[in-house]
Amino acid sequence: MDTETANHIAKPPKQTVIILIASFVLSVFWVVFVWNFWEQGIFALGGNASVFLLALLGLFVWIVRAKHCYVRKDLSWIVPLGMIAGSFALYDNPFLKATTLLCGPVLVMIFFGQAFLVDKQQHNWDAVFVTKLLGRFLSFVTMIKTTLSTYVHLIIPTQKPKKMIIARVVAGLALFGLIALTVFIPLLSSADAEFATTIGVVFAWWQKVASLPFIYKTIVVVLFSVVLSAVLLALSSRFEYTEKNINTKSIDPIVTGIVLGGILCLYVLFLWVQVSRLWVG
To answer: 267: left (phi > 0), else alpha (psi -120 to 50), else beta?
Structure first.
């Protein structure tokens, strides 16, 4: 077996497999329990949203620890995000829920992205750094093809001939069933009433399964799991960032202190609202 073939059928790392499986499970959970909330209103996001967001945050933290990038200071973003996620189940506040939906992805992009920064405790945050984080997040587009191929590899393990044969048999049966239920059974049923009665139970079941909502949800599960896996794989890669020399520019310490102090006060106020609502109602 040549090197190219060996690389093609190489088994994916265990961490990658866990990320892909967890992303698929989260996608199924979202479609089953959070689906269509936009038609029912923001109040439809309650315990279902909290479970989904907390599970997603737990997956983030597991990846950080698995990559040996976790430090105690990471709790400064893990705990607030956990409180924000849990707040969906504790009380109904349409303003905070809508704000979380808008700001949540940005916060995750920033904090989860910097979690893998080499010597992250030694770096200062500036506009260039935030731009680098945005670039890392958008790099998930380049990981989509790899993610798809890895999913196919997990479903059809080409490195194991016996499992490959089983996968081919299942694929053949699935293809036969699809052709039979969509082409041959309807044609034969229209030609013979007795055959239509005999096969009617199976065909009625297929009509329920192959409904448009089910097809839409299946497509969303596939797309959601692929995109989520690609984002996680892109952000969890090693992040090296070299700061530019800023000694040539004078930064007013008073202006900087006011800006950072104001942001900190808003952050503390938001956490205080979260904590106070845990005790009220």
So the answer is: alpha
